[in-house]
Amino acid sequence: MLERFYLRMMSTLATDSMDMRARLARFMVLVSLVAVVFNLLAVPALWFIWREPIMAAMLIAAAAFHLFALWVLRRTGVLILAAGMMVLNHVVSLFALIYLFYDARALFFVWLPYVVMVGTFLMGRRVGFGLLLIIVASVWGFRYLAVQGYPFPANTVENPYALVISLTLALFLTALTARLFKDAHRMAERRLHASEQKLRLHVDQTPLAVVTFDPEGRITEWNPAAETIFGYRREEVTGKFIQETIMPQAEEQRRFVNSVWQALLEQQGGQHAINENRAKDGSVILCEWFNTPLIDRKGHVIGVASLVMDISERVHAESALRASEARFRRLAEQSPDYIVIYDWTVEKIAYCNRSTLLGYQWTDLASFEAILEKITPEDRERVDAAWRRMMTAPEGQDTGLIEFQAHAAHGAVEWIRSRETVLTRDSMGQPTQMLATLTVITEEKAREADLRQAKEQAEAMVRARSQFLANMSHEIRTPMNGIIGMTSLLMDAEMDPQHRDFLETIRSSSEALLTIINDILDFSKIESGHMDLENQPFDLRHCVEAALDLLAPQAAAKSLELSYWIAPDAPPAVTGDVTRLRQVLVNLLANAVKFTDSGEIVVTVENRLLGGGLHELRFAVRDTGIGIRADQIPMLFSAFSQVDPSPSRRYGGTGLGLAISKRLVELMGGEMWVESQAGRGSTFWFTIHVLAAEGERLPVPAEKGNLEGRRMLIVDDSATNRQILRLTVAQWGMKWAEAADSQSALALTKEDPAWDVAVLDMDLPDQDGLALGQALRAAGMTAPMILLTSVVQTHIYQRAQDAGFAACLYKPLKPLDLRAVLAREMGGVVESMHRVAAPPLLDRAMGSDHPLSILLAEDNVVNQKVAQLILDRLGYRADVVASGEEVLDALARRAYDVVLMDVHMPEMDGIEATRRILSGEATPPLPYIIAMTAAAMQEDRERCRAAGMHDFISKPVQIEELKDALLRAQMVVTAGSGGVDVT
Q1: CA distance to 35, 101, 141, 157, 166, per residue, from 144 (Å)
Q2: Which phi and psi angles does 463 have, rounded to 5°?
Q3: Geometric angle at alpha carbon 573, from 571 and 575, rounded to 5°
Q4: Cα angle: 234, vertex 280, 213; to 5 degrees
Q5: Distance between CA 581 and CA 667 in Å, rounded?
Q6: Is the pLDDT assigned to residue 854 strictly greater than 90?
Q7: Residue 917: is it exposed, middle or buried by C-beta count within 10 angstroms (0-12/13-18/19+)?
Q8: Rounded to an integer, what distance in angstroms lies between the CA atom of residue 952 and that of residue 945?
């Protein structure tokens, strides 16, 4: 129990460092415990032997006071108070002992155990046992001398109780002291070890490098952070000198490190240092050292402990920050703008890169009120409102650019552009600093005014140019309308071949001139940005076929094969500008026909789905013409440029067709390019982006027979035509065999004459298709035969009918026409021979089939005659007026179904006349108004639509276009029961 009490006391008072206060406290605890034991052992002798209860009570009280002193020491740690109480208790114990042994000299033997105990505690167990032996020897020595007659306190020496008590107490206290000392030493070692472990844990986990050295500079401690910073492992550096490891290479740095080391050893500084060090990989790092010399009890330096931080990045960052601040300060000072930081806390400018603004000193502009006074009255309220919004805006949000006028010190009014931002706010949200950037923009405003004036002048010039082009278009198209119109009418009359050739030359020359005019107008509209695309659903196949039909006669005249192929996955109907797509195809086909003397021209259309219903259609126009050299390709798509620009060139043209086509394709979201080799033909590629038109489907003829599994014989010398036919009939589930000449076809028929249908080309290398048809009949073929020809001539149709052909189809072959014939023939229905050809342009039955009452408004006499003759050939009779006023008068006299309204007429033009008709000046039912004008610009179409016109035809009038417009008008008039409903 006593041992546990002692250990608890030691756990409270002991410290890891053995300083004097701790040693004294331990000594007091040990002495007090011994005194308590001695007092308690003496109580029975005083009470029972000497019959001294009072003295026994005094010893018990002394023991109690000792224990109380120990409690005070443990709870308060006040060493003086506990020591005073213990001294008092020892005095009480002293008087009790004197009384007990009758003589003060007996105290020598009584206090001998204390001497043994103190010696053991202070000097070790061996000294304690030595003192014990000396005491024992002294007791027996005194006894021996007393017996011999020497004057010694025999009463004490010979007192058996004193002797026994002294020796027993000495032995007991010595053993107890040795045991307690051993346990205290073991506990101190455990605590020291635990403290060392805890310290090691802290050292190992600290992010700072911990390095210790002995006085010679050898490394004794090296934690993981030091390994990370310097790259050396602990075992690599332990015991090595600093010069061998992390000492820098630079001589100046070495001298600095040596001076710091010497100052630490002499205890004259060196606690903080920043210097370069060398890592294991040879790199130089900048470190900050916090050094502490380790001093022993005698004041000697026994080592150095250091905390090390790698500050390379921090120093670099600070250096970069300082450089950045200096750089931005230089930029601010060199900036043409005024950069101002205003401090709200002191209400003055904290920084400004200039000394004056508009001639004012910044001290004159210290407050916003002073600044507002310099702003012109018309801008003052707007600027003040913007600043107030900024005051309540979130931190970092600026006012945006504010432009205002201010009075300068020299009296002039200057333009200022400013941007303000609240930089910081206080805890209450009030702004403390504001950044303002001010720029004098008076000259810029002057330039803007000049640019605005120049822009207005340029726009006026563009409008003038557009008006000039419109006027020129109208003036040129008006006589062209007469030339082409009269030529078309004459072509429909009976005449000898020479006169027909003359008229054909006039017509083709007029159309060539019209093409040039259209190209120039289109290019002008594209260059001015006035080209607008329509976005209407159209039939993709019909668009391609229409472009091919326009060039079919020229291709047939040069004996060129003309064909096309549309991928099956292409959408049958798409949304876009069919007119511009057809224009691009016609331009490319016209070039292909122009530059190809023999061979073929093939158009292919491929499809790629982009997602979201968007398709990329990829068109290719391939020819077998003269081709293009690689160095000539870059100039192809440039305006007014040609591959052969010399005056003696073989091929004419404006050089605008490809440039316009490329621009149109780009407007449709695609691109155009060419692949060509000289002498091997060319392939022009272009893509467009379109949306599939919902609800629009390619018309399919009614099938009267199943084509699945039927067999077709294909005879054509063109490999491309055979491939297209194969791909076409394969979609219908048919089987086929093909031949490139008549002999191969006859050989196939002799082997197996049981064909379901035969498709024969008219122009074969060894004989024509009509002769081959007769030879196949003679060889036993009974299947229907279809003739393909590139020339639309009546005599070929008649010869094919006489030869027993089931149909005569014209190239380029249209799959729908072929399928219609196959459906009829496979169904077994006996009909007359099918001929797919364009209906005559001038059909006198149209007027009776689609009756209309027509009013023609035209001021030009030639155009009046042309229009009247065309309408007459179509079976219509028209009344003619020459101005808008006459139109209103005519409509007041009678109702007309259709008004063909010229736009440019004297007195009242067609636009004004249309507005007045639709506003109620004409008697209902109101007519269907068709603009028929030589003004062909997009702006003219928009003006006509805006005025309320129902349709638009440009001059020179194309008969097909006029017929289509009249058919649309007849459908509207019929649906409206005699009039047009404009409500």
Answers
A1: 31, 21, 5, 10, 18
A2: -65, -40
A3: 110
A4: 45
A5: 11
A6: yes
A7: buried
A8: 9
For the cut 80, the answer to whether the pLDDT of residue 890 exceeds it is yes
Query: Which amino acid, 256?
Result: F
Angle separating helix axes 2-13 and 160-205, nearest 10 degrees: 40
Upper half-sphere CA count for residue 792 (Cβ side, 13 Å): 17
What does the DSSP assignment read for 693-730? Answer: -TT-----PPPSS--TT-EEEEE-S-HHHHHHHHHHHH
Q: In terms of Cα–Cα distance, which of 171, 177, 43, 155 is closest to 97?
A: 43
What per-residue confidence (pLDDT) applies to 1? 44
More confident call, 520 vs 109: 520
Burial class, 624, CB count within 10 angstroms (exposed 0-12 / middle 13-18 / buried 19+): buried
Of how many residues is the chain composed? 983
Cα 371 to Cα 83: distance, rounded to the nearest angstrom: 81
Measure Cα distances from 743 to 161, 211, 768, 772 in Å. Answer: 159, 105, 12, 9
| Helix-then-strand count for the chain, H and E | 31, 30
Give residue 318's identity as a one-letter amino acid code: E
- pLDDT surpasses 60 at 158: no
Q: Of the ranges 10-24, 711-725, 759-773, 964-978, which one carries the lowest mean pLDDT score?
A: 10-24
Residue 554: closest CA among 496, 609, 520, 515: 515
Cα–Cα distance, 560 to 624 (Å, whole number): 10
Q: CA angle, 513 as apex, 955 and 463 as ends, to 5°?
A: 65
Q: What is the pLDDT of residues 513-525, one digit of tens each?
A: 766 677 666 666 6
Taking alpha carbons only, the member of 650, 651, 647, 667 closest to residue 659 is: 667
Which token pair is 419? Answer: 């941007």
Closest residue by Cα to residue 20 from 90, 89, 79: 79
Distance CA 785, CA 756 (A): 9
C-alpha to C-alpha distance for 960 and 433, rounded to whole angstroms? 77
pLDDT (tens digit per residue) in 131-148: 666 666 665 665 566 556
**Integer Cα distance of 637 and 174 in angstroms:** 120
Cβ-contact 787, 773 below 8 angstroms: yes
Question: Following CA atoms 266, 271, 274, 276 in sequence, which dihedral angle do they give, to the nearest 10 degrees?
Answer: 50
Which helix (H) or strand (E) segment is 477 a member of? helix 442-491
Q: Residue 161 above 90 pLDDT?
A: no
Give the predicted TM-score (pTM) of the model.
0.46
Backbone angles phi, psi at 624, to 5 degrees: -115, 40
3-state helix, strand, coil in the chain (%, to 5): 50, 20, 30
**How far apart are alpha carbons 513 and 521 in whole angstroms?**
13
Closest Cα to residue 58, out of 46, 70, 68? 46
Q: Is the peptide bond before 924 cis (omega within 30 degrees of 0)?
A: no
Residue 7's pLDDT band (cuts 50, 70, 90): very low
Cα→Cα distances 304→208, 218, 226, 236, 268, Å: 16, 10, 15, 19, 13
Q: Which residue has the tokens 């630490």?
A: 264
* Distances from the Cα of 448 to the Cα of 444, 460, 960, angstroms: 6, 18, 52
> CA 16 to CA 25: how far, in whole Å?
14
Extract the tokens encoding 793: 């001539």
Q: Which residue has the higher pLDDT, 497 or 252?
A: 252
pLDDT at 263: 84
- The CA distance from 6 to 566, in Å, is 108
Chain center to CA of 420:
30
Q: Are 927 and 855 in contact (CB under 8 A)?
A: yes
Place of tokens 């009829």: 824
The 3-state secondary structure of 212-279 reads EECCCCEEEEECHHHHHHHCCCHHHHCCCEHHHCCCCCCHHHHHHHHHHHHHHHCCCCCCEEEEEEEC
Using alpha carbons only, how large is the chain's radius of gyration in Å? 60
